[in-house]
Design brief:
- The complex is a heterotrimer.
- Chain A is mainly α.
- Chain A contains 16 helices and 2 strands.
- In chain A, a hairpin with a 2-residue loop joins β1 and β2.
- Chain A is flat, with a radius of gyration of 24 Å.
- Chain B has 2 domains: 173 residues, Periplasmic binding protein-like II (D-Maltodextrin-Binding Protein, domain 2), CATH 3.40.190.10; 194 residues, Periplasmic binding protein-like II (D-Maltodextrin-Binding Protein, domain 2, 3-Layer(aba) Sandwich), CATH 3.40.190.10.
- A 6-stranded mixed beta sheet of chain B has the order 2-1-3-12-4-13. In chain B, strands 6-7-5-8 form a 4-stranded mixed beta sheet.
- Chain C is mainly α.
- Chain C is globular.
- Chain C starts with a helix and ends in a 6-residue tail after the last helix.
- Classes of the chains: A mainly alpha, B alpha/beta, C mainly alpha.
- Chains in contact: A-B, A-C, B-C.
- Chains A and C meet through α2, α3, α6, α7 and α8 of A and α1, α2, α3, α5 and α6 of C.
């Protein structure tokens, strides 16, 4: 991994900075150390809840409820809560897989549809393009909690033709509503950063519009697309409300909703397993990010600003 | 800006070589995803006839399992597929609202207090089944549950989850007291025990428990939110003000500030951790002490041994407590309405109700007179209160029936908020009651 | 929105090649319709139509599952004049969004500057900072609930048992029970969740500022402070405007954090638009009122957007 990162664009500059720092006198070295020290509170702040999650998920119920013991350390480590998660709930059997499928498919749909739209908005000139641009932005402002009651009617209308209620298809249909405006907004900016001349050349070589898009523009826009993919994936992974309303079948639930259903029983909270689920559910997406982190950074920059 | 774009672009895109490498990596990932998709999407369409029941995730998983078993048994006899779906109790309203809005969803649904009134137009009339089951079970112990508009019975009362006083017998004995019988007893004992670090815990917050217990206090002081016609707001009375004054005293003498933020579970935790001396809760608090093998702090003795339940305290206005009443109904838009009713007939037999109750470890307290005396309640002194508490327990909306307005008042937690404002001296009892009256009036007017 | 600005300026583009000019004179890019068709279909059927329906609800006496009839602005009048909780909700939402976004900008900027300077363990530090943003909100909020919980209260435990706090005699604090602390707590959790987005985006902005500007400034003898005020901040302004805009939209519409942590309590001191509209629309079935509460977000968002767009436009002055 490290060799890849060294070649990464975002790194390149800091690499230069570090060289510069190496040549600098002692007081600068000390300043560098101060940087790390100043960052520590931030890191502690960001990771503190996760630490609590892990510790709580490893404690016995008896210890969780013992208020006199330190909440920050487990005296006896138990894997009971993870076992419960695996044996008594659909966490690993269904929910994780469902969430992956929903997030993947809706991301693929949103990014491909959004890419086409964004390209048209950024490059092509035809009547109505401005209006459509404004419309994209307005839809972005509509709060989700307002949309979901009317959306039920739409999902039901589809459901009477193809049964999608209680399957993840209902989510795959509805998630693009909040993903597409975002993807278009991000990519529109990104496409503008690509010089028009590149396409002109492709046309001169006899490319059609579509093949120019696929062969020339998309490869150049890859960081932006990766960024859009990651963001869409995160948003779908975290969605709660639609998933709650459209799916009640135990085997078709997604992660967040499934966890809430199975591990919160009336006024009894299975804290250990809840925290285990929280922690386990966050891992896949964290891994995903750690791979694409730097593209995310660079994709966001040019996409968001220009 | 255009120029800066190019500059930063060079920075971002880096060397052509790395770009190409990156693209090939991406292609590999995309291919992987494609293969997951190809194998991972099962054809999820099933178009057989299916009887579907929706309920909340019960405290005791076994209770839901027993319900599923009964539904399966019934399904086998009727030759259809069946399914039990669950959602967390706080999320059930959203799902029900969604099903009504879309006129599509389950066949049988579990309904709480005022749902049967709210969804009156969308629920099958149950009058005949209601009579039939009453005859079989020696009559219903409540006559306000499952009511729809125009006096129709739109759902069957299913069970209720009572709110006894849960007390630490050892702590109460330590201060030389008996288990409390009146609210004044509660106040005195709580005052003594708070000084020893063992306060009373009653939520004055946005939680269901809070809605129930604050109503209990109001009613047992002779106050009420509405008249028996379920329409006339009647909260502004001398009795209500007395109840508010009592809550203020109780809060200051016997409770800690944290009750203002408590959720339904916090009083359990407070009790199970050995801090709280008393609270009002279904038996789940006791059961979680058993499940978690909680110990009395500083000893090796199991905590559950010294927990007991007693009937809700008496006040100047009698002994009253609110509770969560569950009803079960059938959607009108269900394609299997007749089958669903047949299932209810099958479920409301003594044998099945008993099994359901046993599986729930006594939570699902029966609402049929002849089922109330269940052997499980004789199995332990902790449950002795159970067969009797039904007489003192009413649904929200008492002395009227729960209506849409009742539900709104509950969901906005107006009574707990008013009592909390009074307890924390943000308003005098008179002001708090007057403000509550104004709020109730506007809501009842809107729903009229 | 970026689209909006740029489309406005499209006429000012430098002249393109002969071929493209020819194409433009022959006619507009008709195939563009094909490109936007898929997204247009999805957005019209799944966003525009539901949104229109929501607007209609706000103007009607709609109850869930019942036929609705038009009642004009009665719902809005009810909220503004009769409902005594709504002013609190409005206040809470504004405080929530303004404080939270302000904190995110301030601390996000500092953290990004620090992150940019470090060289070793860079990947670890960046990754760790990002985690709060990517883990499922509904679940991480549960984690915070455990930490802020009145009964468990891990923070109070620190104050009581860990030196030097144990000497100070602080607390115990009622993070979710005290009205001011409760609002602060939900803001804090939102801040925790949203900070990484600011850090990473601002970091991306910092990385794209060309080195030669700093070098030139150093030759002119500028101090670190000068460099920050005269180069970094002005060049970051477009990035900041975009993240602020973005974050404001998410923060104003936030639902999960309050729904899990306080459910609007104590005494409605933490109710936000989203949770209050949920209470009306879903729990009370009064979708007319629910939609009306939600729609109040619109003017606030529109105002923020216009303000921030102006900020971005002004930045064209900083051409390199």
């Amino acid at each position: 991994m490290s060799s890849d990162t060294a070649t990464m664009p975002a790194m390149a500059k800091s690499e230069r900075t570090s060289l510069a720092l190496n040549r600098t006198p002692m007081w600068r070295q000390r300043k560098k150390l101060a940087n790390y020290l100043a960052l520590l509170p931030y890191i502690a702040f960001a990771l503190f809840p996760f630490y609590i999650m892990v510790i709580t998920s490893l404690k016995s119920n008896q210890e969780i409820n013992n208020l006199s013991k330190s909440p920050f350390w487990a005296t006896g480590i138990t894997t009971d809560h993870y076992v419960y998660l695996a044996q008594n709930t659909g966490f690993f059997d269904h929910w994780l897989l469902n969430t992956v499928i929903v997030a993947t498919v809706s991301t693929v749909i949103s990014v491909s549809v959004g890419t086409l739209g964004a390209y048209a908005l950024a490059r092509l000139r035809f009547r109505g393009v401005e209006m459509f641009g404004v419309a994209v932005f307005i839809t972005y402002l509509v709060p989700q909690s307002l949309l979901f009651i009317p959306l039920i009617n739409v999902v039901n209308a589809v459901d009477s033709v193809v049964p999608i209620r209680d399957t993840y298809w209902s989510l795959i249909l509805t998630y693009p509503t909040f993903l597409i405006p975002f993807v278009m907004w991000l990519l529109m900016g990104y496409f503008r950063t690509i010089p028009v001349e590149v396409e002109e050349c492709a046309y001169l070589d006899g490319c059609s519009r579509l093949s120019a898009l696929f062969r020339v523009v998309l490869p150049m826009a890859m960081p932006g697309i990766i960024c859009a993919v990651l963001f869409s994936y995160t948003l779908s992974w975290n969605e709660f409300l639609y998933s709650l309303v459209f799916i009640q079948d135990q085997a078709a639930k997604t992660l967040s909703v499934g966890v809430f259903t199975e591990l919160i029983r009336g006024d009894i909270y299975y804290w250990g397993s809840l925290m285990a689920a929280c922690f386990t559910g966050a891992i896949p997406i964290v891994v995903l990010y750690s791979f694409f982190m730097d593209y995310y950074v660079s994709g966001l920059t040019s996409g968001a600003i220009k | 800006m255009a120029k800066s774009t190019k500059n930063s672009l060079d920075n971002i895109l880096g060397e052509p070589k790395s770009r190409r490498k990156f693209i090939s990596e991406t292609a590999a990932v995309t291919g992987g995803i494609a293969s997951i998709l190809a194998t991972g999407i099962p054809p999820a369409f099933a178009q057989e006839r299916e009887l579907k029941l929706l309920t909340w995730s019960h405290f005791v998983p076994k209770s839901d399992e027993e319900l599923e078993r009964q539904l399966k048994e019934f399904g086998k006899q009727a030759g259809i597929k069946v399914r039990v779906d669950r959602v967390a109790h706080l999320q059930l309203p959203a799902v029900l609202a969604g099903e009504v809005q879309g006129q599509k969803g389950h066949d049988l649904i579990s309904l709480r207090n005022a749902n049967s009134y709210l969804y009156s137009e969308h629920l099958e009339t149950m009058d005949d089944l209601y009579e039939k089951i009453a005859k079989r079970g020696g009559g219903w112990t409540t006559d306000t549950v499952g009511k729809g508009q125009e006096g129709r019975q739109t759902a069957l009362p299913w069970y209720f989850i009572s709110f006894p006083l849960v007390a630490r017998t050892d702590l109460i004995a330590e201060v030389g007291e008996d288990l409390p019988d009146t609210w004044e007893d509660v106040r005195r004992i709580a005052g003594k025990l708070k000084k020893k670090g063992h306060p009373l815990g009653i939520q004055l917050a946005h939680s269901n428990d809070s809605n129930n217990v604050t109503r209990g206090i109001l009613w047992s002081h002779g106050g009420k939110l509405v008249e028996a016609d379920s329409k006339t707001v009647a909260v502004n009375s001398k009795e209500s003000i007395e109840a508010f004054k009592f809550v203020r005293a109780l809060y200051k003498e016997g409770m800690e500030k944290e009750v203002l933020a408590w959720d339904d579970r916090n009083n359990n935790v407070c009790l199970v951790s050995g801090k709280c001396s008393m609270t009002f809760n279904p038996v789940s608090a006791y059961r979680s002490a058993v499940r978690d093998k909680a110990l009395i702090p500083g000893t090796d003795r199991p905590l559950h041994q010294v927990i007991n339940h007693v009937l809700p305290p008496r006040g100047p206005g009698g002994r009253h407590m609110a509770a969560s009443f569950q009803a079960i109904g059938v959607w009108k838009f269900s394609e299997n309405a007749q089958l669903a009713k047949e299932f209810l007939d099958f479920h409301f037999t003594k044998e099945n109700i008993d099994k359901h109750l046993t599986a729930s470890q006594g939570y699902n307290q029966p609402v049929l007179a002849s089922f109330a005396m269940h052997p499980i309640y004789a199995s332990s002194p902790k449950y002795y209160f159970a067969p009797y508490i039904g007489w003192y327990t009413h649904a929200a909306g008492y002395p009227g029936v729960p209506t849409a307005a009742t539900q709104t008042v509950e969901d906005q937690f107006l009574l707990p908020d008013a009592m909390a404002a009074c307890a924390t001296d943000r308003a005098t009892p008179e002001e708090a009651v007057a403000k509550l009256e104004a709020q109730l009036t506007r809501i009842y007017k809107r729903h009229a | 929105m970026v689209a909006v600005t740029n489309i406005g300026r499209a006429e000012a583009r430098p002249p393109l090649s002969v071929r493209s000019r020819l194409r433009r004179s022959v006619g507009p890019d008709i195939d563009g319709y094909g490109f936007i068709l898929p997204s247009a279909i999805i957005m019209v059927s799944l966003v525009v139509y539901p949104f229109g329906l929501a607007v209609w609800y706000s103007l009607s006496d709609a109850f869930i599952g019942q036929p609705a009839s038009f009642i004009g602005l009665d719902n809005f009048i009810y909220i503004l004049t009769v409902d005594d909780i709504f002013p609190k909700v409005l206040r809470n939402t504004l405080l929530f969004a303004v404080i939270s976004v302000a904190c995110k900008v301030f601390f996000g900027l500092i953290c990004a500057l620090l992150l940019q300077r470090i060289t070793t363990f860079k990947r670890f530090f960046r990754g760790a900072m990002l985690i709060p943003f990517v883990a499922p909100t509904a679940l991480t909020t549960l984690g915070w609930w455990l930490i802020l919980d009145p009964t468990y209260s891990h923070i109070n435990w620190i104050l009581k048992h860990v030196w030097p706090f144990s000497e100070m005699g602080l607390g115990p604090y009622q993070f979710l029970a005290d009205p001011t602390l409760a609002l602060s707590s939900v803001i804090f959790v939102n801040f925790w969740r949203g900070l990484p987005f600011f850090v990473i985006t601002i970091l991306a902005g910092l990385v794209s500022i060309p080195d030669h500007l700093y070098e030139a400034a150093e030759i002119d003898g500028a101090s670190t402070w000068d460099k920050f005020w005269k180069i970094t901040l002005p060049l970051l302004r477009p990035v900041l405007a975009v993240v602020i805009l973005f974050s404001t939209i998410f923060t104003l519409a936030d639902f999960n954090i309050v729904f899990v942590l306080t459910r609007g309590g104590p005494m409605n001191e933490t109710h936000l638009f989203a949770t209050y509209s949920y209470t009306y629309g879903i729990l009370n079935h009064d979708i007319g009122l629910g939609a009306a509460v939600s729609l109040f977000l619109f003017p606030i968002l529109a105002f923020t957007v216009i303000f921030l767009l102006r900020l971005i436009r002004r930045d064209t002055a900083y051409e390199l």
